[in-house]
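Worked example (supplementary).
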Amino acid sequence: MAITVSRPKLNFRERLYLPAILSGMAITMRHFKNMLFGRTKVTMQYPEEKWDSHMPEHYRGAPALVRDDTGRVRCVACQLCEFICPPRAIKIIPGEFPAGDKFAKVEKFPHEFDIDMIRCIYCGLCEEVCPEQAIYLRKDYAITGFTRADMVHNKEKLLEIGGVMHGVVLKWNEKK
Amino acid sequence: MSEQVSASAPPQMVNVQINGVWHEFPKGTRVIEACEKAGSYVPRYCYHKKLSSPGNCRMCLIEMGLPKMGPDRKPELGADGKPVINWMPRPQISCAQDVSEGMGIRTDSPLAQECRKGVMEFLLINHPLDCPICDQAGECRLQEFSVEYGRADSRFLENKVKKPKNIELGPRVTLDDERCILCSRCIRFCQEVAQDDVLGFVDRGSHSVLTAHPGKRLENNYSLNTVDICPVGALTSSDFRFQMRVWFLKETKSFCTSCATGCNTVIGTREDVIYRQTPRENDAVNSSWMCDYGRLNFNYLQSEKRLLEPEILSGDKLVPSDWNTAIAHAAAQLKHFSGWEIAIIASGRMTNEELWLTRQLATTLGVDLIDIVPRTGPGDDILLSVDRNPNTNGARLLGVTSYPGARLREIVDGVASGRIRGLVALGEDAADIGLTPAQLAGLPAFVVLNLLANNSTAAATALLPSFGFAEKRGSMINGKGRLQRLNRAVRGPGQARDDWEILRDLIQAYSGRNGIYSIEDVFRQMSESVPALAGLSLSKIGDLGVQVLEIEQSPAPLWELESEKAAR
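After joint prediction of all chains, the assembly is encoded as:
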């Protein structure tokens, strides 16, 4: 259906245009004056200057894996993040702790864990879906590389970004 | 009463009120089944329709009533002319009781709901929070019913009971006792179906655990069925363990081609990799079960020995080629000989379509000497057949063989004497029938169509890589004469091609176009010339198959008779 847009009825002052032009010029001149006296700053000199300290708490940067207090990779390769990931950036190959291993009770760990950072859209669903609190979006945003392979973060890289997360997942502790 | 009489008499029907609506069911229907048929699914853990009902999980509690009897012992009728129901004050289990006339059932009353919630809470008291590492997650009844009927939080503050975890119960089954909810399905399966009573519960109360009899292991050939029927992740398949989460699996209906029984299956795949096979219910073939041997017999499709590109003999060695060249090369080689100088070794593992095309190829070449290679192994009285070829009946029906293996001697002798100079081996290893490498290397034309490299592929003059059972469509006739359909679950590797296409191209190299462009065309032409298949098509076969042959004897003894004959 066609929509009829009603034209505003302009009064004499508006039809003259000159007052609007002059008030616009005044704003421009004010900014010009502020620039001259260094009172406005419009360009941040990246990468010499960075915005990192202003990053909000909820900022979503590169996803990363974390270790727990005992040094175990918290991820147990349940593959829920692989399932939920909208651009299918995550690929996990599960492994099994051998009998007698320090963490044998947990049984499963990610043998390989790759996140293709070309595909990642930083949506944070992996963090949200993780039942083990093992994957977090950190504040790293400058993800670069010279090849496509460089842009795939493997388990080592993800753990390097992630570090240790002290927390409350106690269910794998030995039962009393 | 003889079985025939009971089969012909119409079943006696009883009226049952389910959630306020009156339904009719045949006498002898379980209450839990009646409720499901009426559209009110009753959750259950221990009940399995193919096993006995111990009634020990208490998940299927419902409210039940019987008709109120008047002083004359007749049911009192209400205003609607239906019996008035006397509701029992206590809940009843629906899995261990048959329906009776005038029975009333409430599956969703506050009492029934409260009972389920209570049972769920008790079951979860000692259940570990293993879901992220549990292979059952995604197809776990405990997860499903917990969401549907359980409560969101736990009131249990005490320490959970510690039980054995990650126990090797047998060569193919892993047990986690903490996850077990003591439903006893696996115990009953081993007693009633597998005839190998090795499992049982020991200890009492919260400390009850499932275990194998001391000194015994769950190692019968049907052990993995316990994994299928386990409603939780207590029993898991050691082969499938941690390989893939079940929600990633694409499920394709197919059937097992490891013996003549042809158990109906579901093939679980992801991105062209097969991860598992599970049985699919078909009461005419395999009930709900399949043997471990057949279930795990798919890894060869992903083996290193797969043939990936067509190869032709150039000079004195095989070189990779393209399909057009390879087909033309194979056809040209066989063209040098007349029909009586050529023999065809077909396979009982080929589909009907492929066998029919093989028959056409034999006719085109004028070949009379054609047979399949018999394949036997120990059978049992449950599912596993002695005949390990899935389509012996198809080969018989389509005239590729009359007695499997009867003419193989003739082929071996013919090659040895030099009468046979062109050999076509379809899906079989020519070395298996007794041909020596020297004899094979001496053949001027040796066309091999196979999916795996074997002892004779190196001697081929033309090597045509083909597909496995999960990579193609087609039909086979099992030992009991049932026509069943294979569906494609994964794509074939490399440049390998569907067997029927290769055979069609070989035929077309001699006779020009024959109007076959799809596998449906093959089946159509086959059904037009084979009376037993008349009026059928691949889609008409359906998921459960169609009975096409009347096999009077069970396949195993018949087979033995024939192999004896062949040996003579």
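Two points are worth noting when inspecting this output. Chain A is about 25% helix and 15% strand. Chain A has a mean pLDDT of 91.
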